[in-house]
Design goal:
The protein has 123 residues and is mainly alpha-helical. It has helices at residues 17-44, 50-75, 87-100, 106-109; strands spanning 3-4, 10-11. It contains 4 helices and 2 strands, in the order ββαααα.
């Protein structure tokens, strides 16, 4: 986690104790949010696959972060989301997200078990 000042400039130091403390607090909130779900799974005798557990944890983290931003916006008097994020911001983030996406064909997704040669990009 990185901390920024009021102007949006990153606060740097060799060891940022404030950031570590905030991460720890957020981690504790995430665990508390997931606790009832995990207890329910344990009581049922079931298990959650590691990948799904990571997705649940990430989702819980995101939900908490969204609520923090919402509470902060309300606290400072912001009533319209457009005051926080513009259409240009969304377009920029669309490009960033699209650049991170990797589409695979069904044969590649199954580990290429169909015996086909993987498609090579044109050089």
């Amino acid at each position: 986690m990185k901390l920024v000042d009021q102007d949006g400039n990153e606060i740097t130091s060799a060891e940022n104790k404030e950031a570590k403390e905030l991460e720890k607090q957020l981690g504790n909130k995430t665990e508390k949010l997931l606790e009832p779900i995990l207890n329910k799974v344990k009581l049922s005798g079931g298990q959650i696959p590691q990948q799904q557990l990571m997705q649940l944890s990430s989702m819980a983290h995101q939900i908490l972060f969204n609520r923090m931003v919402y509470n902060l916006a309300i606290k400072v008097g912001i009533e319209n989301i457009n005051d926080l994020i513009s259409d240009d911001d969304v377009k920029e983030l669309q490009t960033s997200l699209s650049n991170q996406l990797r589409v695979v064909d069904p044969g590649e997704q199954q580990g290429g078990e169909q015996g086909e040669n993987p498609k090579q990009p044109n050089s």
